[in-house]
Amino acid sequence: MILHTFNKGLGAEQLMRRCSALVTSDDAILLIEDGVYWGTATLAPFPMQHPRVFALTADVAARGLATRIAQAITTVDHAGFVQLCVEHDTVKSWF
């Protein structure tokens, strides 16, 4: 089980495609920093074929996206981020 953390914004489409292609059913994606833009309702269908997608609440709020995050994406605070790290065997950062 891998937790994929993704921090790149919308200009990193190739990187998001590679990340999405490697995610398995046991993995999860956590959108952080500018990566939370991928979680908006208008963009979420592209990279979010996977059912376990999370976004860091502080980064969502800092970018004014709280009302634009897709319903399928669960927001987590910093404690939730740590919990996801503990639940997964490996953390893969996409920077």
Quote the CATH topology.
Answer: Hypothetical Protein Ychn, Chain: A
The CATH superfamily is known as: DsrEFH-like
Distance between the termini: 19 Å
Percentage of residues in helical conformation? 25-40%
Strand content bin: 15-25%
Mean pLDDT: 90
Q: Count up the helices.
A: 3
The Cα radius of gyration reads: 12 Å
Strand order of the largest sheet: 4-3-2-1-5
**What is the overall shape?**
globular
Assign the CATH architecture: 3-Layer(aba) Sandwich
Number of domains: 1
CATH class: Alpha Beta
How would you summarize this macromolecular structure in one to three sentences?
The chain is of the alpha/beta class. Helix content is 27%, strand content 22%.
Characterise the protein shown here.
This protein is α/β, with parallel strands linked by helices. The chain has one domain: DsrEFH-like (Hypothetical Protein Ychn, Chain: A). Helices cover 27% and strands 22% of the residues. The chain contains 3 helices and 5 strands. Helix 1 links the parallel strand 1 and strand 2 (28-31). It is globular. The relative contact order is 0.26.
